[in-house]
Records
---
Amino acid sequence: MEQSILKKYAELLVFAGGNVQKGQPVVISGNVADADFVRMVQDAAYDAGASDVSIDWQDDTVTRTTYLRAADHIFEMYPDWRVDRFKFYDERGAVYLHISSSDPDLLAGVNPERIKTLTKVSRQKLKPHSALTMSNALRWSVLAVPSPKWAAKVFPNLPQEQAIAKLWQAILKAARADGENPIAAWQKHRENFTERKNFLNAKQFDKLHFTNKLGTDLLVGMPKNHVWVGGGDVGKDGIPFFPNIPTEELFTAPNRNAVNGKVVASMPLSYQGNLITDFAITFKDGRAVEYSAKNNEEILKNIIEMDDGSHYLGEVALVANSSPISQMGILFYNTLFDENASSHLALGKAYPDCVQGGSTMNDEELLKAGINDSLMHVDFMFGTADMQIVGIATDGTETLLMQNGEFAF
Ligand code: ZN
Ligand code: ZN
């Protein structure tokens, strides 16, 4: 890939994604295999005026070996020094930038108990940190670069070099980073969401009714004063940022206790190196009461049964079937991309700013407002080319919001 394009992509992450301000510390997490790009992002962060840039290096091979060979009890602990490291940067108001490139099959064949145990303990220990990011008290952003294994998974019939080149192309296109001025393209992208967002926020639907031929028939109750978010976010300090590059979704939090019916997934869910396929979940008064999957039902079980909150929904997101990512027709095996190809739901924690005043509410107040809490937040796709969505007002009047997968308002 051309250096000038990579430089623009790195700058997109820093200036638009995290929107790094003068004097701010920056923490970048990235793979050792992507060192050149990580260093480019570091440079861009200093160009933006960062006071200091720390790199949290990851290594897929080391991670996999640890999961396969470490002693059982290792997965029951998460070291305090890691928690302190986050605390040190959180207290200084750092911007967190993530560069994702992982092999979708990284943890395939690893004992799911190990993954489940470590996920739970690390999320418990890092709850204060994730509360800050999820309430937009800290800015963060994630984008992706290809790795040979990821490229081979997405394009299994191409020789390695071609597969990587093709994945780069797809990533940059999806990320609107293949043009002259990606940062300007993203400003425009943000503005395009405004009208629909304002419409939905003004309407304050009581329920959304999702149906399609795949078998989804789901009523999603909405909390009072819910807020639709899309085309980026705004930090508590008023500074705009884009948590996800790409992003094509309009989303909010459902009322955790008012979801009823059945949802059938329209795409497989790639979760920590395992692919859950052909799955469906039935909800009663918000709670997942029944579920099944053709492959890896055990992994789906681990997600849903992680804690009480993981039985409930924390996100409902609308994506048009004509979104550039959907039109590419590529399964990326990476939620960052796949969630932008299709309307989706998430099991687990909701973003507090999806209800008015949510970012200043405590856990109890959020729960009372119908906003779900969990250690998990796992997106799964259920949008299809024939998806229909009807918004139902408190007085029962209906508004068609989506027909044949396209926005109808
Ligand atoms: Zn989403
Ligand atoms: Zn999500």
---
Amino acid sequence: MKRKTNGAARKKAAKTAVETVSGTQATGPVQGTATCGEENGVFERRLARHYDELKWLYCELYHNDMGAFEYFVSMLRRSWEARKEDLRAQDARREADPDWYRSRDILGMMLYANAFAGTLKGAEEKLPYLRECGVNYVHLMPLLQSPKGRSDGGYAVADFRTVQPELGTMEDFEHLADACRRDGMCVCLDFVMNHTSEDHDWARRARAGEPGYRDRYFFYDNWDIPREFEKTIPEVFPTTAPGSFTWLSDCNQAVMTNFYPYQWDLNYANPVVFNDMTENLLYLANRGVDVVRLDAVPYIWKQLGTNCRNLPQVHTLVRMIRMACEIVCPSVLLLGEVVMEPAKVVPYFGTPEKPECHMLYNVTTMATTWNTLATQDVSLLRHQMDAVCALPHDFVFLNYLRCHDDIGWGLDYGYLGWCSGASEVPHKKYLNDWFTGKWPGSNSRGELYNDDPRLGDARLCGTTASLCGVEAAVYENDSAKLEQAVACDLMLHAWMFSQSGIPVLYSGDEIGQLNDYSYHDDPDKREDSRYIHRGDFQWDLAELRHDPKTRQGMQFAGLRRLEELRAAEPCFDARADVWTEDSGSNHVLAVCRRYEGRELICLFNFSSNFVHAGAARDGAYTDIVYGTRYDSIRDIELYPHSFAWLLRE
Ligand code: GLC
């Protein structure tokens, strides 16, 4: 779909072309900038490194629109000029140490500033708590301006440069980011690039028919083309927002809305959109964001007759964003949100010569972990782990158990069918029955999400603790059950920490926070069960974290111990060789990590019973968590839902 650069951008490009060096001369001397020659040299050097590739990709995608390209380069320069000293110093440090984010002592946490501390200022005051949790990477959930009741949890951005007034101001954000930087804590922020809110200035102008704005989205006079698109685009929210287009009766137009009707898909075939959105990203980077989470990135290129996901042009765009960051703010990392099967995720790392994202979510391992808890059979998880272990060591995955979104059952059904005879729809039904506590023997308390009876494709929501049975045990006042549930929760975390990459906790999980059902009473939220695990952080319960007799105390201390062991033990290094082994039981996953002559065997019992399992080798091992020494680990007894980290002597 070919779109022309609009007039406004051309004018802007012409204006900035005189202020800045044009694309073709970009490596030459620079005039008209406020910064000193030596510093400019830094920008020039970085631009020169990427210039040919950038121009090639840009011109290929945008039909040799040199005006747009020159504008893009001038925008990069402007963004770099606006970057403050402190951030430039950080750029230099991290450029000199490109592996800085591969360290095994990085521990992440994701949180909503309002749920955690009311406001951004409040969150800054709570930084000591995060430090106490060992967190040095904080993902602040969407905090930019977003209309109330039409925000999709902040994922419908009305202004990329304004903070939601209830949370504070952009100055507050910058202050918080500065404080985090002083503390050695990275800040991650979402960049919702696939769409804007219908309240965004561009959307309002497009709606009003102002020239040059409808081209930023996908507008149609009638349903002919939208219907064609809908034949091949799968629905994102089949129950809560079916279809991929929304009819705007005030202006008699259909607009593409793959997510909610108030989230209008941006048209990246228009270079103005790419230029302005990249400028927004760099604006946020200049406020002190270390990690940019590219939200819903596989969706950003649309083409009739396709599923509009993961198209080759998406990779061109991500590669260009990566180069833009390497030129302007090389200390900034890109985290791709690709919630898909591994074969679709891995290409977003790009190649060693042409990297795209620095980090990606280990989403299939997450979903397979929950599958394993319900089936108590580790075959699929082992198979998934083998696939991850076969990838190059320098791919950095973000490992997590829960996040703000639902758990989608994107499992390898081919393998599952082959090894257990299970087929997709009944298996999903089983998982959902298990995790909603309907299945006999299950103590899980989750809720379905976007239950699509036509496809039998419901997803699932709930906090880690509630899914592990803590909620049921507390409700039933059953201490034995509670102990088991907390053990299960810790075992899952130990499993997450045993994987290479960056572990990210979901705020509240460190004290075993339960589901929050209050969203049922909120008309803006009640249709979206993801709010069940987005409840306010319970500071009163967090107070109990130092009391070892409370479940919060056991949970908190248990996690801290695992995190500290992980940071201290070289076997957890990202460069370690990692593989799975036959533990002798299909209930127990055995993972071996070897690094610099040390060997750690990790065993995870996914069954609710005592199980005998081990690793086929001789020699003495010590459990680094409990200190137990084993002369042989060929056959050891594991408690229900327990784990062992066994270090070879
Ligand atoms: C991402 C977010 C999700 C949001 C969607 C639309 O998948 O994680 O919460 O609904 O993007 O922006």
